[in-house]
Amino acid sequence: MYLSVVEDPNTQLPKLGFVSGKSPRRLKIAVMYEGMLGQAPHPEVRKAVTGTAQLCRELGHTIDEAKLPLDQVKLHDAAGRVGAVEVARAVDSIAKAKGITKLEDGFESRALGLREEAMRRGPFDEQVAAALPTLQAGTATLDQFFQQWDVLLTPVLREPVFKIGMRDQTKFPFKELNEILWDYVAYTSLHNICGTTAMSVPLHWDSNGLPLGSQFAARMGAEATLLALAYQLEEARPWASKRPPTFVT
């Protein structure tokens, strides 16, 4: 409902409208297990995504494993460089506006680490200009992929839910924390970079009773495809009443 209300009436993308239920359409779904930097998923995560693929097959969709025809490592690096530049610009702008002279007092260590990386690489505008062709080419390649496939199914995260504090940036040097983060979020950043639409659906649960999401992605502007699929998946495997062993309302 919210998306249908706030969508741009002048968009050149397909109109979303209000998606009220599942669709009879049968989709061609690609399954991919490899993360953006070539990571393999945790066994529990792989088992969950395999189970999701089987559920989709039982619902009548066509399922096959596929590999994206793009250099995800190169794409990740280009996006990381632009991201670091934007963080650096934001830090400097906020510091100037608020009169912050000691950056450590006003910003988290990861933000400062990204800023330092950007400053070491040279002029910001040159870094962005150098990265843009890679970002544009990657976006175009992914769009071509979605002309052959309706949906891409992957894990959401490489591992099951981590315990609070295991990614505490006050406990790790910047480089180590960055490696931990990108290893964990191995699948979602592709769609953040390319602007493709994606959703996480909690169809499975790990050994601790916590949800394991399955990520479904589609081409830019194809939100209606994913929402209709979500209706179908929730009807087949309801999750609204699921609760982990330790649960607080």
Distance from N terminus to C terminus (CA atoms, Å) equals 25 Å
The whole-number mean of residue pLDDT values reads: 93
Domain module count: 1
Q: What is the strand content?
A: 5-15%
CATH C-level class: Alpha Beta
What's the CATH topology label?
Answer: Amidase signature (AS) enzymes
Tell how many strands the DSSP assignment holds.
5
CATH hierarchy: architecture: Alpha-Beta Complex
List keywords for this structure.
about 10% strand, alpha/beta, 8 helices, five-stranded mixed sheet, 5 strands, single chain, about 45% helix, Amidase signature (AS) enzymes, about 250 residues
Description:
- The protein has about 250 residues and is an alpha/beta fold.
- The protein has one domain: Amidase signature (AS) domain (Amidase signature (AS) enzymes, Alpha-Beta Complex).
- It has eight helices and five strands.
- It has a five-stranded mixed beta sheet with strand order 2-1-3-5-4, covered by helices on one side.
- Helix 4 crosses helix 6.
- The chain is globular.
- The protein starts with a helix and ends in a 13-residue tail after the last helix.
Quick structural overview:
The chain has about 250 residues and is of the alpha/beta class. About 45% of the residues lie in helices and about 10% in strands.
List the helices and strands and how they pair.
Blueprint: H1 2-6, E1 28-31, H2 43-58, E2 62-65, H3 72-98, H4 109-120, H5 124-148, E3 151-155, H6 174-184, H7 189-194, E4 197-205, E5 211-218, H8 223-236
